[in-house]
Amino acid sequence: MRVREMTHSNDIARMRELEVLLERCNYQYYVENNPTISDFEFDALLRELQDLEAKYPENADPNSPTRRVGSDLTSEFESVEHRYAMQSLANTYSSEELGEWIERITREVSDVEFVCELKFDGTAISLTYENGALQRAVTRGDGKRGDDVTNNVRTIGSVPMKLRGEGYPAHFEIRGEIFMPYASFDRLNREREAAGEAPMANPRNAAAGTLKQQSSQVVARRGLDCTLYHIASDTLPFATHIENLEAARTWGFKVSEHMKVCRTREEIETFIAYWDTERKSLPYATDGIVIKVNSYAQQRTLGSTAKAPRWAVAYKFQAERALTRLVSVDFQVGRTGAITPVANLEPVQLAGTIVKRASIHNADQIATLDIRLGDMVYVEKGGEIIPKITEVELSERPADSKPFEYITHCPECGSELVRYEGEAKHFCPNSAECKPQILGRIVHFVGRKAMDIEGLGGETIELLWENGMLKNIADIYDLNPQQLASLPRLGEKSAANILDGVRASKGVPFERVLFALGIRFVGETTAKYIATHFRTLDAIAEATTEQLSEAEEVGAKIAVAITEYFADERNRAIIERLKSAGLKFEIEEKQRSSNALEGKSVVISGKFVGRSRDDMKALVEEHGGRNLAAVSANVDFIVAGENMGPAKRQKAEKLGVTILNEEEFMALIEGAPTTEHTPTEPEPTKVEAKPIQGTLF
Ligand code: IVH
User: Fold this and answer.
1) What's the predicted TM-score (pTM) here?
2) Which CATH number is 555's domain given?
3) Looking at 381-526, which runs of residues are DSSP E strands?
4) Per residue in 437-461, pLDDT tens?
């Protein structure tokens, strides 16, 4: 073999080796909760595989561990038919109903074993495996058809992409729940609040919303998890549900540890009673117990109704709630000026903690529930961070109670509140002078995910503001050592720390600067999309609302917020000062393959033969073009794969937008001169298959 061929086969062998190693590490980390290598070592191996895949894209495995990182390109979800319908479950809410169900079952089949399981509170998923490899992940949809969310599901560490062990059928579907553990949920909501976005109501909504995200990179960061509880196949190795699930565990799936075979109603009731309490210490949300007939033969005898199997039932837990008195309501003002009412309660014990405060979302909620001061109210913890008021106990309402009068003026600065169309919340419009808004914006600006100015915490910001040194984010770059030294409670070291942090922040990349500005609804991810799309702040500032909506992930609401931000001359003045201070207001250009698509706006639509839609979009960017989400007159051409939607095609034809097929598109970019210097004689590659240290794995 010649040197080049040898290197090639070594590289391919190394790719296969890395795939196996990284998947093993993933399994140990996500399923066994037992990491065997450091994050640093893992990242180094992953990067090595990414580099090899970039070099040999034709040899990259679609189930490669690199796919778990996700892609920042958007994808539409294809609707696919379920081979086995995805049914839901009949619910019972009381011991009597459960008893009736058990009686019905024992009348029809004898000698029954039941399996009791936790009912996970997330969103259902069906995973298809062919010869041990993950083929497809589909949501429940209407039970007959669901959305293909494979790319997003691949980012979930506990979902095996290749199976381990043996004995699995050549083709099977395995179903379970994708859920968001409390820790991920709390982190997500902290991030959303920091970005001025409404927090997610509960982990279930957060899981379902995340799974339908257009960008798998966003999904990868959200910390979803997946547990499996049902297998469907024409050929299964065992005759009972529990045996097959135990087998599935050996194939690499995360299967709940908390399942129990029960033979009597008493045993089932004991399991329910135990978990009704114990579930509170689980790190994820559950909303009941599922009871299933264990034997497949008996399941077949019992059959199904149109909606649900007769051989299974869900016993739903009562949401935990407590009754207490509403003492007063505070109104918090956020950095965007949004007003959030917070209830002060007489302290009450609820789900293991003492509750003194509860959230009330807005004025409408107060009106709908007719909440009044002095009322006895029910508070519930539904997985939310703070409990919420769900109902008023009218029988205990004081005789002299009066309807609640919502505030009309800002509790901080006294400005008259406004209510924007389509917004549930009231806002204080005095963004320039209202203290919590000013301080909130500065705190956001210096935050770790924004400009990351260490040493400048909330207290110091307030101190600087009180001493007239900090009125807006641009003032940060005018702070000087003398000023800081004059402040009480601020040592020399802290002052130096702040100034170092301020200096270092000038190197923060544009997308983070854009996020730091604190434009409403422009969170970390949206800022990244907008920065990539428009490349400079000036381009964003000049874009019309319509042009802004053309960027991926930018809906009308965000586009309007951006337009309004730049329409305000106070914001423009601050940006000018930040520019003079030397902050980055342009994206750093990546090396391009060619300029063939320079200035061209492209829509990629449908399914392609040679490459995935995400790969096609990456090619557009590599060759200098821009991806647009929707067909409009601003689109230069569409690359249409198989099954491009007829509505899209019609619109394109009406607007006279050129439609290219995959081959024509490839010809367009392949013929283009490269922007890189190409050596005439390819250099032999220096990468060699590295032996892996036995101790690590
Ligand atoms: S079995 C044909 N088992 O609850 C039986 N479902 O309310 C399929 N769920 O759609 C479902 N935990 O999304 C089953 N241990 C468990 C479950 C479970 C949560 C969900 C599932 C289902 C919904 C019905």
Assistant:
1) 0.58
2) 1.10.150.20
3) 388-392
4) 999 999 999 998 899 998 898 889 9
